[in-house]
Amino acid sequence: MVYFKVAACAFLAAGLTTAWQPSTGAFTSRNSLAIRTNGVQQRSTLSMVVTDPTSTSPMGGGGMFTASNSESRRVVPDDVRGRPVMKVVYVVLESQYQSSLTAAVKRINAGSDNMAVECVGYLLEELRGDEAYAQFKKDVEEANIFIGSLIFVQELAEKVVEVVQDNRERLDAVLVFPSMPEVMRLNKVGSFTMKNLGQSKSVVADFMKKKKQEDGSSFEEGMLKLLRTLPKVLKFLPSDKAADARTFMMSFQYWLGGSPENIESLLIMVGQDYVKEITDGMVGKEKMKAVEPVLLPDKAIWHPVAPSIVFENPEKYFEWYNTEFCPDAGIDVKTAPTVGIILQKSHINTKDDTHYVSLISELESRGSRVVAIYSGGLDFSGPVEEYFYDASGKAIVDTVINLTGFALVGGPASQDHKKAAQVLKKLNRPYMCAVPLVFQSFEEWQSSELGLHPIQVALQVSLPEIDGAIEPIIYAGREGATGRTVPLADRVNLLADRSLKWASLRTKPKSEKKIAITIFSFPPDKGNVGTAAYLDVFNSIKAVLGQLRSEGYDVGNAPDDKEAIMKSIMDDPEAKIASPDLNIAYRMSTEEYYELTPYATDLEENWGPAPGNLNSDGQNLVVYGKQFGNVFIGVQPSFGYEGDPMRLLFAKSASPHHGFAAYYTFLEKVFKADAVLHFGTHGSLEFMPGKQVGMSGTCYPDRLINTLPSAYLYAANNPSEATIAKRRSYSATVSYLTPPAENAGLYKGLKELKELISSYQGLRENESRGPAIINSIIGVAYTVNLDKDVDLPNMESYSAKDDTLENRDTIAGQIYSQIMQIESRLLPCGLHTVGVPPTAEEAIATLVNIAQLDRPEESIEGLPRVIASSIGREINEIYRGNNKGVLADVELNEKIVQASRAAVRDLVEQSTGSDGRVKEVTTFFDDLGGMFGKMMGQKRPWTKAIIDAGFPDVNEDRLGPVFTYIEFCLKQVVADNELGGIMELLNGEFLMPAPGGDPIRNPDVLPTGRNMHALDPSSIPTAAAVEVSEQVVRKLLEKLKDENDGLYPESIAFTLWGTDNIKTYGESLAQVLALVGVRPVSDSLGRVNKVELIPLETLGRPRIDVVVSCSGVFRDLFINQMNLMDRGIKLAAEADEPDSMNFIRKHAKEQAKELNVSLREAACRVFSNSAGSYSANVGLAIENGGWEDEGQLQEQFLTRKGFAFNADKPGMMEQQAELFKSALKNVDVTFQNLDSSEISITDVSHYYDSDPTKVVQSLRTDGKKPLSMMADTTTANAQVRSLSETVRLDARTKLLNPKFYEGMLSTGYEGVREITKRLRNTMGWSATAGEVDNFVFEDANSVFIEDEAMQKRLLDTNPNAFRDMVTTFLEANGRGYWDTSDDNIERLQELYAEVEDRIEGI
């Protein structure tokens, strides 16, 4: 019969919160929401807004288990009076049904002569506990009726199915309302079952299908329409089946109604018709007739004090609201902002609406109008379009707040994000999605370090973000004792304040708006002011100031020159010479600071009393920056760790320092900014201590940003940290491009090598010239240190003349393969300026790399595959030969690459103007001339280019899909909305959402200038990611076996990153599962939250143990995937398999004995930081130079990363340092992934910050250093290299490459810092892994220090950054990482003194 194929529909439809209130007096305390005293409007939080119940919490541990107990929901009749007793067991998502069910049962027990009811209820989360699960099982075994609703958590759904399925035949009825399909199939009401309806032709199913075709209804909407048209449908069914189906549908309606009266009708109806004892006892008696539930209209406007409960007509609502309510409440209809609010109908049905009333009262008490709408289904787009516009089609709201916490269209399981974004963009107002607590009480949320429950994060934070929602503020939750929904006072106040601040950005005159542009300085040094990943900060600020000026903002006398803007911020004008201090914009006395910063005393525990010594002149707190008219450009203070290296050892982060707090206090309360624009990736605000998601009023990101609307420029390739900024600092992000990627090219000896190999290819069979050239190739290869990468013959004993042609080809092929890897590697050149799209030339390299990837999901073959097939070759076979150094395959691969470049270049040139830019893309596939040309037998320009490159038989039809795609991508690459996106936010408009990630893998990231989001975490790893991961794992294990006498490694230490897994849709996550020998399984809703063991006979190798270190960002975004890994690893550990084939089990048994814990506890392998804490701070220590020795770095890593995730205690990050060490000491290999050409291992400190190579060495009993490996999936030809190979490749393509460093130097000040940063990050790898060759430092010294002209350029351009470069060289030598001549060290020491004098003005 009815098959609920996407039963997840209905958090909403099924009445998410149904705590019942008596109808009498429901509105008695709501007669005046905005209170006026002596004519003055007062801000008021009504008495029904409970005080924060979380200030003292009985909870411990901060876990996600609900602390409630089913016994509080057990009702037993006081006096049976000889009546038959019906036992009802129910399982619901949360406790809102407790009140209605308890009241209904008590009413029956008191008033019915025909039956008595025993009832017990369970919250879904309670079933995790063994005791609760055992009691649940016992209760179901004794029950007559089972009721379930909103059972959507896979592992708990399986528990429910297991218990109810065993009792289904015995139970008199099973009623399951929207839940996962396997739970829905348990339904049984007489002859009515979901299972039968799903498998056979059905009038009901036909009705649903017809509604879908007619109006695009989702399955959920169809269910609601079916309820309304039930009589028409049932007449087609046999009478007995019609009666049973009617009972089920009536039950669903009663359940939706949710009040005690409705639930009473449900229980009596089912009891008297289906429970045999009761049915038998009623022979000859009159049955209760089913009462029709009274339901509100499906969509309407609601207001708590309106004379009508709801208004279906917006004109009637405003007639009452504007003429009666607003004048009484003191709201000026003409000037008041209007906030649109989206509500859940179920709360209004059940009068469980205190949290709604609370927010409405707060908004109206601030002088705002409110339009609160609801929908009976899960698609709110209709009510938005109907009620948020006036009769002329003009939007009447200034901000929209969605209080349901769900995606705008489709709720938690079947979203239409595209439709939602289109509806919201048409409205064009800021769209906030606030979150009510569902799985936790306030106490549980407050005591949890993680904050919001991970499942709720996935459903009610991640999914609305894809619609374009901002600011997931917790505003309400359930009261533990009664299950009623109550507001949280300080959160409701914050939500009201922030929504009105966003509204004012739209309505306030631009000339009066104050904008604070916040730039970063990290590490804190004058040479680092304006730090942002790949962004030319000051040129970009110049562009933004120009745009502000052109749109009517007051930017005062802001200079229209990058250097002048820099100088105004970086030099104190009071100083007679270039000052070492930044310009001080404001001095805040300690009295003012304590008065304006309510949490200032909380910082004293870590920093002592203000002002302290950071951002302080000894008496006052100082704010650095410069004001131009109504625009302030300020420098965000640093974390504060720098002054005290020992703070880096703390496992948990402490608090911001007084200077940091004073900066944000200044912006909000002194400068009185209307909005803050955080400029570039990234600052420290979003990483301050506090909960992961779902901030409380004591979390520092929340305290610091307070009521300030925040726009945040974030690099498009970093969606994970952008998401942290969105969730923790309430920022709307604006994506910006990273610089266009170019091929690294070759230089000096590498270029000479390529020329020699080219000569050899033509003369290889010449027995005189061929061997001579090979000898020269080997000599040059040694000169450029390629002997580290290729097994070269000994120069002194080798003579090519005595060698075979085959061996000579092998030497040439292996060297050629190496230099082609260097030449073809993509590197971003220079820095990006906001609002400047790439030139046509700059777009080509990106497009070539887009073209190389197969995209099976879109039926697109990669360009190399199509070209290779034209000569009868398979591209992966060519890649394998290339990687092995087979000369013919290396040559062929290079030929294919060149053909691809030529073809893409031809396509781009068709659309390139005389200025070298693409204004409008010429679309050849719609071009009439092109069509006629094809009819005449002419080839497309790109086809000609491939033919001319030596592939005459290439199939033009097969090229069609990939070149259509490249044309689309070209449009995306050169489009630009970055300045437009910034202005949309500052003008209080809705900014369209877009995914973040790697534009090569996912061109939908482009164009930039949109509100960046991550992905639905339950969607990874995808099937494609699993397939790629299996290939990488195979290559990794093959390489490791080759290097270890054919033996498999027993344990691999893995690092998982948030951004990498977003970009690759979970490839590295899938690699962990593949090594362990488990496979991810999609559940019935398509969500990946199950794993199953791959049998050893299928796996064909041992299960490899893993120790997984997750970044803090991965922990925040993918805690459900951490659960997946932990369950998979424990599944393997508990498998009854021999130790020789299951290294997880082998090691877990050893650890269990060593640590005296259970096997399951010993098998914990998924670790990260404590909640609200990020990184190992190893990178921070190295960047600041304040570390004593490697032992300190290793201790930091173990202390900060040693928090275990345990699926048996979800939601807790428990410090398990001993278990972490015990697991690490078995590690044979450390492993990381490189997934993007834009961010490599020396571009950022993150990679070495989390590298445990030397940590493992210090823990292993044999003291042996593990192998360090890197997987490189930046191209279609995925490779596994050693870490040292990867460091060399990175150094050759970036730090030592003229194309890179000259590109950086062309941007000036910021470019010097970028070069220095890569040198320091290279040294970081020496510190954590010892895998940097001496020649890297030696060659860098030659390029930047020995060359006096280069030295002068660096010194003149950014003396502070150059000083850091000199310091890094001296430190590398002093710590034993670089062995060099005394002359070099002496020169560096002299240079350091010279630079110091220059900076100090001596």
Could you characterize the architecture of this molecule?
Mean pLDDT is 86; it is low at 1-65, 197-205 and 574-579. With 1402 residues, the protein is of the alpha/beta class. 45% of the residues lie in helices and 12% in strands. It contains 57 helices and 36 strands. Helix 27 (748-763) packs antiparallel against helix 28 (769-783). The strands form nine sheets. It has an eight-stranded mixed sheet with strand order 33-32-31-30-27-34-35-36, with helices on both faces. It has a seven-stranded mixed sheet with strand order 17-18-19-16-20-21-22, with helices on both faces. Strands 8-7-10-9-11-12 form a six-stranded mixed sheet, with helices on both faces.
Topology:
Blueprint: E1 36-37, E2 40-41, E3 85-92, H1 97-111, E4 116-123, H2 130-142, E5 145-149, H3 154-167, E6 173-177, H4 181-184, H5 194-199, H6 203-215, H7 219-228, H8 230-234, H9 239-257, H10 260-274, H11 276-281, E7 299-302, E8 310-311, H12 314-329, E9 338-344, H13 345-349, H14 354-365, E10 369-375, H15 381-387, E11 399-402, H16 417-427, E12 431-433, E13 435-441, H17 442-447, H18 454-467, E14 474-478, E15 485-487, H19 489-507, E16 515-519, H20 537-550, H21 562-570, E17 584-589, H22 590-596, H23 604-607, E18 620-628, E19 631-635, H24 658-670, E20 675-679, H25 700-705, E21 710-715, H26 719-728, E22 731-736, E23 741-743, H27 748-763, H28 769-783, H29 805-824, E24 826-828, H30 840-851, H31 863-869, H32 875-884, H33 887-909, H34 928-935, H35 941-948, H36 956-974, H37 978-986, E25 993-995, E26 1011-1013, H38 1023-1042, E27 1051-1056, H39 1058-1063, H40 1067-1076, E28 1078-1082, E29 1088-1093, H41 1096-1099, E30 1105-1110, H42 1112-1117, H43 1119-1133, H44 1143-1155, H45 1159-1162, E31 1166-1168, H46 1178-1184, H47 1190-1201, E32 1203-1205, E33 1213-1215, ...
Parallel strand pairs: 3-4, 3-5, 5-6, 9-10, 9-11, 11-12, 13-14, 16-19, 16-20, 20-21, 21-22, 25-26, 27-30, 27-34, 30-31, 34-35
Antiparallel strand pairs: 1-2, 7-8, 7-10, 14-15, 17-18, 18-19, 23-24, 28-29, 31-32, 32-33, 35-36
